[in-house]
Design goal:
It contains 1 helix and 10 strands; from the N terminus they run αββββββββββ. By secondary structure, it is mainly beta. The chain has one domain. The protein has a 5-stranded mixed beta sheet with strand order 4-1-7-8-9, with no helix packed on it. A 5-stranded antiparallel beta sheet has the order 3-2-5-6-10, with no helix packed on it.
Length: 137
């Protein structure tokens, strides 16, 4: 019985090691993984990212862009309608990134409207994203 448990543990441990190490000279932004949709990091300061799972930025001011895919409930569309999948780009400007700090980008939606909010290590909101274009993005 022990061997099957060990085989299950190795993939879990391997997945944890795939995330890069946090550079203490930079700020780290975790993406909300509790959202009902899919959130992906796309750009920092108009430069595309290689890894869409997080942001790691130098201290100071930055513009972050994320892609949020979420489902719109049929009740928000109209009678006899089916649900709808929607994809939107959101842009967040923040001028207070500090080296060595961890931030969290919480995301969600209300009907057709997406939202994102940057929170500091204590969970206090520090910036709110603005909605960009939605559709085939």
């Amino acid at each position: 019985m022990r061997n099957p448990l060990l085989y299950c543990l190795f993939p879990v441990l391997g997945a944890c090691s795939l995330m890069p190490r946090h550079d203490p000279a930079q700020a780290w932004v975790d993406l909300d993984d509790d959202t009902a949709g899919v959130v992906q990091a796309t750009q920092v300061d108009s430069q595309p990212l290689e890894d869409d799972r997080y942001f790691q930025v130098t201290p100071g001011e930055h513009e972050l862009q994320v892609r949020l895919q979420f489902d719109v409930d049929p009740a928000n569309i109209g009678p006899d309608s089916a649900g709808l999948s929607r994809t939107c780009l959101l842009t967040l400007d923040y001028d207070g990134f500090d080296a060595g700090r961890r931030y969290r980008l919480d995301t969600g939606s209300a009907g057709f409207r997406p939202w994102a909010q940057l929170k500091d290590e204590r969970g206090a909101p520090v910036a709110r994203a603005r909605e960009g274009r939605c559709g085939d993005v």
